C-alpha cells in the first residue's frame, strides 16, 4: 500500500531538501533508495543501490557493477599532459618549482593552485570525496550536485499518478529504475473498500519501461475545468520514439516537484560534455 507525501509543504525547489523526511511512498520501499547517504550520488547506501567503488584517475568513484556510467554520469575526462602546458590555463602564470600544476577533475585541464583551489564532490563523475575543481567548472559542478542531491532522489523514490489513455486513466507508480537507465511505469490496483492502492502483482503490472536517455521533452498541460469546476492539470513526457505519456495527480505541488525534477534530469542528459562552460538553464517553469 502507498503512503502519501505532503507536497503542500514543498515548493518546486528549496523544500526538496526536506523531501526524504516527508516521503514514505511506495517507490521508497521498492527501489532501495531510502537512505540519505550522499556518498553515493543520488543517495542510498552502497548495498541498496548496488554501486561499487572503483579507482579512477582522479580518485575513488561510485559506479554500477558493470563499471559503465549511468545516463546521468560521465566518464572521467582525459587529463591534459603536463608537457603540453607551461602556464596556468586560467591566469597564464608560468608553472615552476613553486607554482605547481593541478588538474581540474571535471574538465581535465591544468591550472595553478589559486585557479584550482575549490574542492567539491563531483557527483556526476561519481567521486566519493571532494576533489580539485577549477573556477570555471565550479558553478557547473554545483548545479549538477544540486540535481543529484535533490531532484534525482524524487524520481528514484517514485510516486503515484494517474496515467491517461484516451478518455480513461489508470493508477500507476512512476519511478526511475535502480540502474538509473529506465523510467518504469507500474500499474497499481485500488482496493474497492479502502480506496488504498498497491502494486498489481499480475503479469501485466509493468505498463512501460522507457529508457531515460530517450526523454526529449517534459511539458505541463492546462486543462479546461469540468462541469463541477475542477481542473486536473497534467504533465506529459515525450520520448524520441515518438511515444507520449500523460500523467495527473490531485496535488499540484506533487506535479510541480515532479515536473521540475524531470526537467532537471533532461537538462543533465542533454549536457553530455566536458567543456567548462555553464550549463544552460532550462526555460522558466510553467505557471501552475
Automatic annotation (TrEMBL):
Q: Its Gene Ontology molecular function terms?
A: zinc ion binding
Q: Which segments constitute the FYVE-type domain?
A: 82-142
Look up keyword Metal-binding and say if it applies.
Answer: yes
Residue ranges, annotated region (Disordered): 21-43
SMART domains in alphabetical order: FYVE
User: What is the superkingdom listed in this entry's lineage?
Assistant: Eukaryota
Write down the PANTHER family for this protein, in alphabetical order: ARRESTIN DOMAIN-CONTAINING PROTEIN D (PTHR39490), ZINC FINGER FYVE DOMAIN-CONTAINING PROTEIN 21 (PTHR39490:SF8)
* Protein name according to UniProt: FYVE-type domain-containing protein
Question: What is the organism field in this record?
Answer: Capsaspora owczarzaki (strain ATCC 30864)
Amino acid at each position: 500500500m502507498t503512503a502519501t507525501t505532503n507536497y503542500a509543504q514543498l515548493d518546486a525547489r528549496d523544500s526538496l531538501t526536506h523531501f526524504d523526511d516527508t516521503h514514505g511512498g511506495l517507490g521508497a520501499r521498492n527501489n532501495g533508495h531510502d537512505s540519505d547517504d550522499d556518498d553515493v550520488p543520488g543517495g542510498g547506501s552502497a548495498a541498496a543501490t548496488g554501486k561499487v567503488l572503483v579507482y579512477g584517475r582522479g580518485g575513488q568513484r561510485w559506479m554500477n557493477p558493470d563499471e559503465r556510467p549511468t545516463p546521468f554520469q560521465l566518464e572521467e575526462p582525459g587529463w591534459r599532459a603536463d608537457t603540453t602546458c607551461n602556464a596556468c590555463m586560467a591566469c597564464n602564470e608560468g608553472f615552476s618549482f613553486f607554482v605547481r600544476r593541478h588538474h581540474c577533475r571535471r574538465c581535465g585541464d591544468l591550472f595553478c593552485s589559486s585557479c584550482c583551489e575549490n574542492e567539491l564532490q563531483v557527483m556526476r563523475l561519481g567521486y566519493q570525496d571532494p576533489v580539485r575543481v577549477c573556477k570555471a567548472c565550479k558553478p557547473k559542478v554545483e548545479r549538477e550536485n544540486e540535481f543529484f542531491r535533490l531532484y534525482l532522489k524524487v524520481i528514484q523514490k517514485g510516486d503515484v499518478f494517474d496515467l491517461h489513455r484516451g478518455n480513461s486513466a489508470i493508477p500507476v507508480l512512476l519511478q526511475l529504475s535502480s540502474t538509473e537507465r529506465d523510467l518504469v511505469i507500474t500499474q497499481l490496483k485500488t482496493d474497492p473498500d479502502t480506496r488504498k492502492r498497491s502494486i498489481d502483482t499480475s503479469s501485466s503490472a509493468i505498463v512501460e519501461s522507457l529508457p531515460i536517455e530517450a526523454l526529449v521533452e517534459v511539458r505541463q498541460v492546462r486543462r479546461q475545468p469540468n462541469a463541477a469546476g475542477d481542473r486536473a492539470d497534467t504533465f506529459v513526457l515525450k520520448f524520441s520514439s515518438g511515444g507520449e505519456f500523460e500523467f495527473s495527480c490531485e496535488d499540484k505541488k506533487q506535479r510541480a516537484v515532479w515536473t521540475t525534477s524531470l526537467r532537471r534530469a533532461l537538462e543533465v542528459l542533454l549536457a553530455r560534455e566536458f567543456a567548462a562552460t555553464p550549463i544552460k538553464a532550462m526555460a522558466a517553469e510553467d505557471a501552475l
